[in-house]
């Protein structure tokens, strides 16, 4: 398996994944442990609304092996309420809350997902994105990825700003929008595969080859969509197995 390839889903605490993914009699408190036996990373969306406690993070660490990586979605206070403005203290608090994961060397990336009505501001100097990425707390932060959901961001000024700060453009695919595949970081990249209904075995096989090439040169994080059915988890498991 590619050591730099991390594959998972957006969360794990879904009882509706029984019995397709989780065994029928598996208790909820064992979900993460079983999940980590099948996949090697997870995107934690919990942090979009609430910061985790140290006790919670320590429990997650205890339930997963050393190679497992946790990525975290940035709080909505940063991305949706303040919209990247005047949030130095919020960013610092977010990063500090993840200290147990960071200290255990189990931290994947931080995902900053912007709302669909958030447009680029090419006439601002410096741009809001550039000013945000210059926040001191981000200088020593783990890998960062941005998911833009307005087409105005898909342009060279955005890519140049991300390159200047070694931040990745999250390549996101949904039924409504597909991000360009532009790799702006030299050390990591991120894909969020969100298409409804999941992916066919042929598509999974193609993904495995494509992502293996990327993982040869950088940490590559792949997260599939959570649905009521375990489609995303099964697709992720198949993708990781194909990469072995």
Concise account of the structure shown:
Helices cover 33% and strands 17% of the residues.
Strand order of the largest sheet: 2-3-4-5-6
CATH-assigned homologous superfamily: Protein of unknown function UPF0759
**Main pleated sheet:** 5 strands, parallel
- Beta-strand level of the residues, as a percent range? 15-25%
Kindly provide the radius of gyration, computed on alpha-carbon positions and rounded to a whole number of angstroms.
17 Å
Backbone shape: globular
Number of domains: 1
CATH class: Alpha Beta
Q: Give the averaged pLDDT, no decimals.
A: 95
Give the second-level CATH assignment, the architecture: Alpha-Beta Barrel
Number of helical runs?
9
- How many DSSP E strands? 9
Low-confidence stretches: none
What is CATH's topology name?
TIM Barrel
Structural class: alpha/beta
Distance between the termini: 4 Å
Percent helix range:
25-40%
Could you describe the 3D structure shown?
The protein has helices spanning 31-38, 54-62, 76-81, 88-97, 99-103, 128-133, 156-164, 201-215, 231-242; strands at 5-9, 41-44, 69-73, 107-113, 144-147, 168-169, 171-173, 188-193, 219-224. It is an alpha/beta fold and 244 residues long. It has a single domain (5-242), classed as Alpha-Beta Barrel (TIM Barrel), CATH 3.20.20. The strands form two sheets. It has a five-stranded parallel beta sheet with strand order 2-3-4-5-6. Strand 2, helix 2 and strand 3 form a beta-alpha-beta unit. Helix 8 (201-215) crosses helix 9 (231-242). The mean pLDDT is 95.
């Amino acid at each position: 398996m590619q050591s730099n390839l991390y594959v998972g889903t957006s969360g794990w605490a879904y009882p509706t994944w029984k019995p397709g993914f989780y065994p029928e009699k598996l208790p909820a408190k064992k979900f993460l442990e079983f999940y980590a036996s099948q996949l090697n990373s997870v995107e934690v969306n919990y942090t979009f609304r609430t910061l985790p406690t140290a006790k919670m993070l320590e429990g997650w660490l205890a339930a997963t092996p050393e190679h497992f990586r946790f990525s975290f979605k940035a709080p909505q206070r940063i991305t949706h309420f303040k919209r990247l403005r005047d949030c130095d203290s919020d960013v610092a608090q977010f990063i500090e809350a993840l200290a147990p994961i960071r200290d255990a060397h189990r931290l994947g990336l931080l995902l900053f997902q912007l709302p669909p009505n958030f447009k680029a501001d090419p006439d601002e100097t410096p741009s809001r994105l550039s000013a945000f990425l210059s926040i001191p707390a981000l200088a020593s932060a783990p890998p960062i990825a941005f998911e833009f959901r307005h087409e105005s961001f898909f342009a060279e000024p955005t890519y140049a700003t991300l390159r200047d700060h070694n931040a990745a453009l999250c390549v996101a695919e949904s039924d409504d929008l597909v991000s360009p595949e532009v790799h702006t970081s030299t050390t990591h990249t991120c894909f969020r595969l969100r298409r409804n209904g999941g992916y066919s075995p042929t598509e999974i096989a193609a993904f495995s080859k494509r992502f293996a090439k990327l993982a040869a040169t950088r940490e590559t994080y792949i997260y599939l969509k959570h649905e009521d059915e375990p489609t995303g988890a099964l697709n992720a498991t198949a993708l990781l197995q194909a990469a072995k």
